[in-house]
Design goal:
By secondary structure, the chain is α+β, with helices and mostly antiparallel strands. It has one domain (4-123, 132-173): Ribosomal protein L5 (50s Ribosomal Protein L5, Chain: A). The chain contains 5 helices and 5 strands. The mean pLDDT is 85.
């Protein structure tokens, strides 16, 4: 099934070429991947919390997350090498477009007093990063199944080289930025 945002992107290629003054089709920024991370810290050692977080990520993204482990021991933080610290999911292709469509049209409007996303979330290469404080804004999760509110980070990686290219691409896709 072809996603709505992918069709929107392919039909708006001429607009992006004119807006960014690109001479070649391959210069237009494209979505590479969406990476979703949750750091649990020492709570990851509790198997129930880890299992619930894995189940939440699987419900939200439609893909099983990978458990991230500590690379080296840090005595000050009571972290040992290869200790579970968090979970991450990388979305590409159709699942990426489906998640982005759901994020733009279903979940972000459910945030209380939502006035748009800050355009300060771009890095120097045009990738966009945002943090979600409450996972209950996603319609797949049941309120009664959540024992503690845990947020996560969403990183949208693009092939663009500047902030202007990344912002233009996300505006074409319908991202609600505040001005």
């Amino acid at each position: 099934m072809v996603q709505r945002l992918k069709i929107l992107y392919t039909t708006s290629i001429p607009v992006l070429m004119k807006q960014l003054s690109c001479k070649n089709y391959h210069e237009i920024p494209k979505l590479k991947k969406i990476q979703i991370n949750r750091s649990l810290g020492l709570a990851a050692s509790n198997s129930n919390i880890l299992k619930k977080s894995i189940a939440e990520f699987a419900a939200i993204t439609g893909q099983k997350p990978v458990i991230t482990k500590a690379k080296k021991a840090v005595a000050g933080f009571k972290i040992r090498e290869k200790m579970d610290l968090g979970i991450t999911v990388t979305l590409r292709g159709e699942k990426m477009y489906a998640f982005l469509d759901k994020l733009i049209h279903l979940t972000l409007p459910q945030i209380r007093d939502f006035r748009g996303l800050s355009p300060k979330g771009f890095d120097s290469l045009g990738n966009f990063n945002l943090g979600i404080v409450d996972q209950l804004i996603f319609p797949e999760l049941n309120y009664n199944d959540i024992d503690q509110v845990r947020g996560f980070d969403i990183n949208i990686v693009m092939t663009g080289k500047t902030v202007l290219e990344g912002k233009a691409l996300l505006k074409i896709l319908g991202f609600p930025f505040n001005n």
